């Protein structure tokens, strides 16, 4: 099997299709394009999501906080807490644990999120540090049922650009090599993208401003996220290549390693589906907060998912192993 998360087909056939829906309290269950579970708690709902960090050991404490908090934000709500399970190989040191926790605590404080607990152990079952993070959020149950139906003609908004997290990881992991190729300024520019991997602000704005559904861009990159949203909606799309922002450092790094920036993991980018009447309001509020964004495409009635690049029309395939794993 390929390194990375299972393909959408594998997830559906091996896992999702076999799960039984037993509890009436469970409002949202696992599915393609679904970032979170939603559980009924009376007047409020509990929003939950879980993710591991496996693609890098650098900045792992920081990433473990953000990736799961981003999933919670995709439900239009700020996260309130996370739980961390840390698995360390036998060659780890107490300094490794201290560094991870200092990073995680610093990021959690920035996001006003509590670390609620978890588990930490040394095990020969892993050969490098692995962290699994579970996030929790809370919102009024009435808000769950306010979401408008996704339909043909709805617009896709992307914040910040493509390949943000992947560029940062590669610049940290391949720092010396990239400095020789492009110089220190470019590498530091790429590393600095790791400071923009939170999508909590845009998630809350989207939730307040009428985004119909949101999906943070992780493994599989922008095109993987688009494909999953279309599957969730049961629609196709046209995506306009010239509307997708690609940072200078991302472009250089991806060309250097011959990888696709649109298929590169991109925590820090939020995909939003919005009706034509809401899209400009959302964009205006994002820009007020200094968050770059653009309309990159629209949903269409047919099931074809297309990337329009100048005169070329390219099929958008289901997400496969992330481009990051070709490099690190």
Automatic annotation (TrEMBL):
It comes from the Bacteria. Residues 33-138 form the PurM-like N-terminal domain. Residues 152-307 form the PurM-like C-terminal domain. GO terms for biological process: protein maturation. It holds the Pfam family AIRS_C. PANTHER family: HYDROGENASE EXPRESSION_FORMATION PROTEIN HYPE, HYDROGENASE ISOENZYMES FORMATION PROTEIN HYPE. Belongs to the HypE family. This is Putative hydrogenase expression/formation protein. It comes from Peptoclostridium litorale DSM 5388.
């Amino acid at each position: 099997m390929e390194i990375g998360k299972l393909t959408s087909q594998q997830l559906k056939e091996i896992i999702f299709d076999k799960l039984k829906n037993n509890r009436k309290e469970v409002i949202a269950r696992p599915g393609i394009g679904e970032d979170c579970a939603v559980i009924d708690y009376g007047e409020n709902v509990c929003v939950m999501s879980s993710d591991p960090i496996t693609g890098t050991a650098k900045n792992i404490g920081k990433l473990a906080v953000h990736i799961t908090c981003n999933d919670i934000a995709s439900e239009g709500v700020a996260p309130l807490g996370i739980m961390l399970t840390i698995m360390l190989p036998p060659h780890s040191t107490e300094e490794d644990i201290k560094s991870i926790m200092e990073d995680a605590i610093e990021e959690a404080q920035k996001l006003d999120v509590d670390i609620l607990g978890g588990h930490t152990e040394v095990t020969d079952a892993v050969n490098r540090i692995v962290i699994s993070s579970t996030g929790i959020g809370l919102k009024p149950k009435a808000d769950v049922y306010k979401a408008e139906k996704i339909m043909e003609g709805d617009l896709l908004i992307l914040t910040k650009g493509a390949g943000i997290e992947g560029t940062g990881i590669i610049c940290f992991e391949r720092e010396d090599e990239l400095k020789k190729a492009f110089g220190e300024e470019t590498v530091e520019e790429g590393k600095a993208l790791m400071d923009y991997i939170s999508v909590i602000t845009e998630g809350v704005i989207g939730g307040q401003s009428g985004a119909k559904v949101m999906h943070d861009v992780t493994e599989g990159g922008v095109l993987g996220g688009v494909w999953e949203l279309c599957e969730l909606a049961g629609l196709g799309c046209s995506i306009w290549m010239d509307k997708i922002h690609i940072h200078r450092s991302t472009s250089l790094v991806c060309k250097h390693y011959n990888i696709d920036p649109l298929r590169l993991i991109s925590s820090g980018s939020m995909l939003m589906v919005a009706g034509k009447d809401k899209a400009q309001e959302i964009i205006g509020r994002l820009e007020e907060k200094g968050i770059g964004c653009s309309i990159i495409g629209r949903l269409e009635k047919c099931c074809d998912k297309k990337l329009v690049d100048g005169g070329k029309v390219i099929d958008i395939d289901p997400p496969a192993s992330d481009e990051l794993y070709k490099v690190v």
